[in-house]
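Exercise 3.2. Students should predict the tertiary structure of the chain below and write it as structure tokens, then compare their answer with the key that follows.

Predict this chain's 3D structure.
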Amino acid sequence: MRRLLDVFLIFLRLGLTSFGGPVAHLGYFRTEFVERRRWLDEAAYADLVALCQFLPGPASSQVGMALGISRAGLWGALAAWAGFTLPSAALLVAFAYGVGLVGDVSDAGWLRGLKIVAVAIVAQAVLGMSRTLTPDRPRVLIALGAAMAALLVPSAAAQVGIIVVAGLIGWRFLTMADAPRASALPVTLSRRLGTAFLGAFVALLVILPVLREVVGGPALALMDSFYRAGSLVFGGGHVVLPLLEAEVVPTGWVTPDAFLAGYGATQAVPGPLFTFSAYLGAVSAVGLPALLAAGLALGAIFLPSFLLVAGALPFWNALRAQPGAQSVLRGVNAGVVGLLLAALYSPVFTAGVRSTGEFAFVLGTFAALEYLKWPVWLVVALSAGMGALVWAGGP
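Answer key:
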């Protein structure tokens, strides 16, 4: 019980302070669980990120669930998800009820400060992971090639293709006889249970549309739409937006203006962008109470991630310990560094830095994080405060 409470409280703090999107979230997690708490080492964390990049759904939330499982079993996954997700979901439901009448916050000074510090957090994550995952010329070249490809072809399908190609290059060229043995990620789930979770993921993907047609009802319709969106999106984050829009706007559940307003509000809250689903559920004209609809939408969009992570982890340690798999992972991890490098530029840098003064702000926050070793929460809080003071009147 103590471990379970620790997991929840740690992820609750992250859920309240993790601004900057999924790439920044991976940086927060690395700082918290690899450097500070040492729940796992750099190689195990990198391999876990690589696994979640392969799975559909929000990669950062999946990494959080996996860390929760490694620390406190299945209940740990739920505790990690609840702590990381519920703060932003609650804020967005409140926005749906009308708290957002304060007006447009998209260019608020404090939000600009948070976007800027996200650049420094992602830069620190890229630098830290590159030291371990690209220590030689071949892996540096893979990372740079992945970054170039991701910038030239910015799509979720391209990201999956880049990871596959990087893995194939690793399998062919990065075999190392003297490579250190991969450290195991503590997982107590059995393979039989993992197989059951993977079966449940596929079964729900097939059964929910059938039940929606045969049984009907707004609850099943809502669950089917959001479960499918969470199951079929690779890359997570902003990639899910067109899927969600296709599910809720043409059906008349949500107006285009309400959709865009909620998306704008989502940029101003911490935590995963998938919590946008709670807002959409709350404002959906499906004939359900707003809180119930918000809960169903939120649970349905994250359920595929839980089933996939819990299903894959029991097989992961054995697979990643194989020599061939290790070669593939060396290539994949170098490719992930490249994808992070590309994301550092777009959308993180391009969205957060619009002037030389803001770039100077980035350098200062990076120095505070990397060299002064200030805690992330302190740098985030100071950045929001400085942004509110410096850009109080907008640009």
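Discussion points: The chain has a mean pLDDT of 86. Residues 59-96 form the longest helix (38 residues).
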